[in-house]
Design a protein that fits this description.
The complex is a heterodimer of chains A (308) and B (429).
Chain A (H helix, E strand, L loop, with lengths): L1 H9 L4 H19 L3 E4 L4 H14 L7 E6 L5 H14 L3 E5 H6 L17 H11 L4 E3 L16 E4 L27 E4 L7 H11 L10 E8 L2 E4 L13 E7 L10 E3 L5 H10 L9 H4 L4 H8 L3
Parallel strand pairs in A: 1-2, 1-4, 2-3, 4-6
Antiparallel strand pairs in A: 5-6, 7-8, 7-9, 9-10
Helix pairs in contact in A: 2-3, 7-8
Chain B lengths: L17 E8 L6 H11 L5 H13 L15 H6 L6 E6 L3 E7 L6 H9 L4 E7 L6 H12 L4 E7 L8 H15 L6 E6 L23 H7 L12 E3 L2 E3 L11 E5 L4 E3 L3 E5 L4 E8 L4 E2 L1 E3 L3 E6 L10 E4 L5 E12 L10 E6 L2 E15 L4 E3 L10 E14 L10 E5 L6 E7 L1
Classes of the chains: A alpha/beta (308), B alpha+beta (429).
The structure holds guanosine-5'-diphosphate and magnesium ion.
The site of magnesium ion has 5 residues of chain B, from helix 1.
Chain lengths: 308, 429
């Protein structure tokens, strides 16, 4: 109620309300401009926030589009359970694109070696799922503060008929006038939370009481030390000779493929404590993802090909 | 690494903080990237791994110390050429505000990029090199800022360290700027002498320029009054989409979803739907959490009316006592954004608020010579980066306010249906 009073007396929004209003505007614009949009749902906090915003944008109607999950097969079991519970409570359709199927069909080949991941393989599965389901706009939880290549993304981001992004030839985006016009075979990515930072996400989750997977909270887990972060031990991980499995109290800042998502040591077991911890943090959240560490332009190169 | 200040907000202090969007303008090498890097660095918004990456690159390139400019020069091509090629967005937060920076590059496609960054900005920072003073580029930037009606302009006279922090040099540049800016429509202009490289008057007050009585840049950005940047007088609600849940619980619900462009709407207000002209009263203003008694720009809400009228996307709900203009013939300040020049008597898609229809450029009244800011009446071709005043005719009337009064209902874009590209941005006169 206090929040309301401040709003009403001064006739301006605080920054979280303004970000929320902007995201709702973008989601409604997607619904109005496209025939068959979906939300790309990874089970991570950003796509959870986007889904929450979609619930608000169309209330009292249901979210009018499906959630699409690109399943690497290397999941945290917690993520899948969370996804299925959410789908049920929202009463929306779930579309799963399976990397395992792409491998079985010979569309992609599994990487070999110790640092093998299925991260790059997701691109093919994602683009296939977009094509077979005739999706003309995939809504993502990408934020411009995440990574330098993302800093140039538009709210409505055009992809050519190979699903590729051309950062040098993007449509200019002025005021709040978005251009989602496309030709056959092309599609769009839309990013309603472009202007949010990691801190904004946590403050918002805290304020809105949004449910998130337990993996974000500090918990005991079997882990392996690898390139400066704690990688969860799982059946998919090939141990090196000198590596050992330890039990640590950790939490995850981002959730991706279980083979590459590093945890950090932490005692933060509530959203509020996490928000406090994040505000004191000296490393970007993607600093613990080995997919981004491969080279300085790793993200840009993947994004050009059609990555999230 | 030395971190000057700890400005990260405690999470509980944010309730009342506003969002301020600003853009930076300056010619190549005036120090835009360095200034942004400095703001982010001194406000503790650069993370260690980012700093390490920049340090590595700085060393590789043989720079002394950390080149803060590298932080903003994001994409591969840019890092290789050492220039910024497109609009990039940056974020930082202080205990007082959240900031969004639209970082726009300073070379060939400059006009197009600056206009993009300027379209949503509350403030523009215009950089001037203290050694060179006001140059043609500076005038161009100030002109674009006034054309786009950015409410606040901060002229930062940079590289003061290279002129021994002299007050005379600073005053001379202010005089130069004011001489030509008096011809422009700018409401709020401030001047700050800085050194982006050394940090003087960016976050911390400079000890080298005691003659300067004003605030450092960050303090200026944190405290400037921005609540009145949005038009709070003219109630305008473009309908984005219609919400019809058709569920058991909300069987007869019919809500008009949109984001209030300007003004305030209250329950019970008498409204008119444009263009049909039907009138009704606001029955409720709904959000996911609650029903509101009043709502204002830029809130996203769903409005229900007392009467059943046929309303769809592209219509606009306005207060009956305060209606926008409505016409098929518009005079527009147009900036051409595409490599392909404007084709005479060709139909373009015009997108204006949530409304879309076809339009034709009937006449180029004059073009502006961006270097002299004078009018060219003989040259009528519109190429990339050209700014001109044109007459446009649309297939149906457009409901608009002049851009000067309302940035949301006074702006439009043109889309070429042959390529689907956004080819022009327009401000209705
Ligand atoms: N001495 C001095 N050099 C500066 C200052 N600000 C920027 N520079 C230098 O000017 C050059 C161009 O800066 P940069 O930030 O890349 O300019 P941009 O092209 O506007 O982004 C770089 O070598 C900077 O180190 C300043 O305040 N003083
Ligand atoms: Mg630069």
């Amino acid at each position: 109620m206090l929040k309301l009073k401040i709003r009403m007396s001064k006739y301006y929004l605080n920054y979280l309300d303004e970000l929320e209003s902007e995201a709702i505007y973008v989601l409604r614009e997607v619904w109005a401009q496209f025939e068959n949009p979906v939300i790309l749902f990874s089970g991570g906090k950003d796509s959870i926030v986007v889904t929450h915003l979609a619930k608000k944008a169309f209330y009292p109607a249901k979210i009018p589009f499906a959630l699409m999950h690109v399943d690497t097969g290397h999941n945290f079991p917690e993520t899948i359970k969370f996804r299925d519970d959410l789908i049920e409570s929202l009463g929306v359709q779930l579309i799963v694109g399976s990397v395992q199927e792409s491998i079985d069909q010979g569309r992609v080949a599994e990487e070999k070696g110790k640092s093998a991941t299925r991260n790059a393989l997701q691109i093919t599965t994602l683009l296939d799922a977009i094509e077979t389901n005739k999706v003309d706009c995939a809504i993502g939880g990408g934020r411009r503060d995440e990574e330098k290549a993302r800093a140039k993304e538009r709210f409505f981001s055009h992809r050519d008929d190979f699903g590729q992004w051309d950062p040098k030839n993007q449509r200019p985006e002025l005021w709040n006038l978005f251009n989602g016009k496309q030709f056959e075979g092309e599609h769009f990515r839309a990013f309603p939370i472009s202007n949010w930072t990691e801190m904004d996400i946590w403050n918002y989750i805290n304020r809105e009481n949004i449910e998130i997977p337990s993996l974000y909270f500090a918990h005991e887990r079997e882990v392996v030390r690898r390139s400066g972060s704690w990688i969860p031990y799982s059946e998919f991980l090939q141990l090196e000779e000198n590596e050992e499995v330890l039990t640590k109290k950790i939490r995850f800042r981002t959730l991706g493929d279980i083979t590459i998502t590093g945890g950090i040591e932490s005692d933060a077991d509530t959203v509020e404590k996490i928000a406090q911890e994040v505000s004191a943090m000296r490393q970007t959240e993607r600093g613990n993802r080995s997919d981004d560490k491969r080279s300085e332009t790793a993200m840009e190169d993947r994004k050009r090909q059609g990555y999230f | 690494m030395r971190i000057a200040y700890c400005l990260k907000p405690k999470i509980m202090q944010i309730d009342n903080n506003q969002l301020l969007r600003f853009t930076t303008a300056g010619s190549v090498d005036d120090g835009k990237s360095t200034l942004i890097g400095r703001l982010l660095y001194d406000s503790k918004s650069i993370f260690e791994d980012q700093l390490e990456a920049i340090e590595t690159t700085s060393k590789k390139k043989g720079h002394q110390g950390v080149d803060l400019a590298l932080f903003t020069d994001g994409l591969r091509d840019e890092r290789e050429q050492g220039i910024t090629i497109d609009v990039a967005y940056r974020y930082f937060t202080t205990p007082k505000r959240k900031f969004i920076i639209a970082d726009t590059p300073g070379h060939i496609q400059y006009t197009r990029n600056m206009i993009t960054g300027a379209s949503t900005a509350n403030a523009a920072i215009i950089l001037v090199d203290a050694r060179h003073g006001v140059i043609e580029q500076t005038k161009r930037h100030a002109f674009i800022a006034s054309l786009l009606q950015i409410p606040h302009i901060i002229v930062c006279i940079n590289k003061m360290d290279l002129v021994d922090f002299r007050e005379e040099d600073y005053n001379k540049i202010i005089a130069q700027f004011e001489e030509f800016s008096s011809k422009l429509l700018v409401r709020d202009v401030r001047f700050i002498p800085i050194s982006a490289l050394l940090g003087d008057n960016v976050v911390k007050r400079s000890e080298n320029m005691n003659w300067y009585q004003g605030s450092p840049l960050l303090d200026t950005l944190e405290t400037m009054h921005i609540s009145s940047d949005i038009n709070k007088v003219d109630g305008r609600f473009p309908v984005q989409t219609v919400l019809r849940p058709q569920s058991e619980e909300h069987r007869d619900y019919r809500g008009y979803a949109g984001r209030i462009s300007s003004g305030i709407f209250r329950k019970g207000d008498e409204i008119t739907v444009m263009p049909s002209g039907f009138t009704s009263k606001i029955k409720s203003i709904d959000t996911f959490e609650e029903e509101l008694d009043e709502a204002y720009a830029p809130m996203s809400v769903s409005i229900t009316l007392e009467d059943d009228i046929d309303i769809s996307r592209g219509d606009m709900i306005v207060r009956t006592k305060n209606k926008p203009e409505s016409s098929q013939d518009l005079e527009v300040m147009l900036c051409w954004l595409n490599n392909e020049s404007a084709k005479p008597r060709t139909k373009y898609v015009v997108r204006h608020t949530s409304n879309e229809q076809m339009a034709m450029i009937k006449e180029v009244i004059y073009k502006i010579d961006i270097n002299t800011l004078s009018r060219k009446n003989d040259d009528k071709e519109l190429h990339m980066n050209d700014i001109s005043k044109v007459k446009i005719r649309t297939t149906k009337p457009l409901m608009y306010d002049s851009y000067r009064e309302n940035r949301m209902t006074g702006s439009l874009i043109l889309i070429d249906p042959a390529t689907n590209q956004t080819v022009a941005a327009g401000m209705i006169v």
